[in-house]
């Protein structure tokens, strides 16, 4: 089941789909560091991650990049959400980045017109359905009507094997040509929940960043490094487990899921011990990435990538349920 991935970032959404049995044939984004991470973690030479302006992407370009006529079974992606997010004080329904949602669905529908897709999946912040999003979501649903049965739900990553409270809106459109397309449902919540201790409790201390650091200076894992703690708060004892009086110094609790990993301006959450911020690896594990996943780029690049990624276990839960539905319906 070949798919197209738009706004792929470092590949969290794609990894979930790949673990469920899909194959990402083409993936696109504009940040080279994220694309390098995407490529590093995939050995399949038939998978391509390319740096292109998605706002100008055409079907002709897709065919050229693929090497022949591109006929994917589905299109997935998470268009930039900063304009919708309530974490962005200056976001609004007029934010130029919001137009990329429209572009995402336009590309998918052009592919569908040429050779019918089985599905389209978009994930985003729940606020896209609120005031910040205006009527953008309803406009997309109208464009899909008649061709797809649309399913919409807000899921929390902590209910799907991720040690983090992270709510995301999923819009899953299944072709009306697929048997029982209208009765598909989102995956049920898992009974067991993970906490911070489960995923980072046994890790050694990370390496602190400095400008002369080299790859070989980070022995345990190339992403197990963090910002050097400079604020007096890291030594005063003020930052105890669960501290949240100041947003930029939110401190995790060992036996609870993490706060949402949204690290604006490198405000990475503080380790439960209160002596430093999380390492990139610790943030990755809290996002649900496996330990063998590696991110490329500078420390700042890596923090941005992990912050913007969709937790792979959440993507896996949704995509596995979707794949089973498609296989059952088509018998293929």
Provide key terms for this protein.
332 residues, alpha/beta, Rossmann fold, seven-stranded mixed sheet, two-stranded parallel ribbon, 10 helices
Task: Please give a quick description of this structure.
With 332 residues, the chain is α/β, with parallel strands linked by helices.
Written description of the protein model:
The structure is a single chain. The protein is of the alpha/beta class. The protein has a domain at 2-189 and 310-330: Vaccinia Virus protein VP39 (Rossmann fold, 3-Layer(aba) Sandwich). It is 29% helix and 14% strand. The chain is built from 10 helices and 9 strands. The protein has helices at residues 12-19, 32-40, 59-66, 99-114, 136-144, 196-200, 233-236, 280-286, 299-308, 312-330, and strands at residues 2-6, 23-29, 48-51, 74-77, 119-124, 148-156, 167-175, 207-208, 225-226. A 7-stranded mixed beta sheet has the order 3-2-1-4-5-7-6, sandwiched between helices. The protein has a two-stranded parallel ribbon with strand order 8-9. Helix 2 links the parallel strand 2 (23-29) and strand 3. Helix 1 packs across helix 10. The longest helix is centred in the C-terminal third of the chain and has 19 residues, at 312-330. The chain is globular. The protein starts with a strand and ends with a helix. The mean pLDDT is 92.
Helix-strand layout with pairing:
Blueprint: E1 2-6, H1 12-19, E2 23-29, H2 32-40, E3 48-51, H3 59-66, E4 74-77, H4 99-114, E5 119-124, H5 136-144, E6 148-156, E7 167-175, H6 196-200, E8 207-208, E9 225-226, H7 233-236, H8 280-286, H9 299-308, H10 312-330
Parallel strand pairs: 1-2, 1-4, 2-3, 4-5, 8-9
Antiparallel strand pairs: 5-7, 6-7
């Amino acid at each position: 089941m070949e798919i197209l991935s738009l706004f792929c970032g470092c590949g969290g959404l794609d990894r979930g789909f790949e673990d469920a049995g899909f194959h990402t044939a083409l993936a696109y984004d504009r940040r080279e560091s994220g694309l390098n991470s995407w490529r590093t973690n995939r050995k399949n030479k038939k998978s391509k991650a390319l740096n292109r302006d998605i706002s100008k992407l055409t079907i002709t370009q897709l065919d050229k990049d693929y090497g022949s006529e591109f006929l994917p079974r589905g299109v997935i992606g998470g268009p930039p959400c900063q304009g919708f997010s309530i974490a962005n004080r200056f976001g609004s329904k007029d934010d130029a980045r919001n137009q990329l949602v429209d572009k995402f669905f336009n590309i998918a529908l052009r592919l569908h017109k040429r050779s019918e897709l089985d599905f389209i999946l978009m994930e985003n912040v729940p606020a896209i359905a609120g005031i910040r999003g205006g009527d953008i979501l309803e406009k997309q649903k109208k464009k899909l009507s008649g061709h797809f049965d649309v399913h919409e739900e807000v899921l929390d990553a902590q209910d799907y094997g991720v040690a983090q409270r992270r709510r995301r809106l999923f819009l899953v459109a299944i072709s009306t040509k697929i048997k029982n397309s209208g009765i598909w449902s989102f995956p049920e919540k898992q009974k067991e929940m993970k906490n911070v201790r489960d995923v980072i409790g046994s890790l050694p201390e990370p390496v602190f960043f400095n400008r002369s650091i080299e790859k070989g200076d980070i022995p345990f894992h190339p992403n197990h490094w963090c910002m050097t703690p400079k604020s007096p708060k890291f030594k005063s004892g003020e930052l105890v487990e669960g501290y949240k009086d100041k947003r930029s110094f939110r401190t995790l609790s060992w036996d609870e899921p993490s706060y949402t990993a949204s690290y604006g301006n490198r405000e990475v959450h503080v380790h439960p011990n209160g002596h430093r911020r999380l390492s990139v690896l610790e943030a990755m594990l809290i996002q649900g990435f496996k330990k063998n996943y590696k991110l490329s780029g500078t420390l700042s690049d890596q923090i941005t990538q992990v912050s913007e990624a969709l937790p792979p276990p959440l993507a896996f839960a949704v995509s596995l349920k979707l794949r089973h539905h498609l296989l059952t319906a088509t018998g293929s």
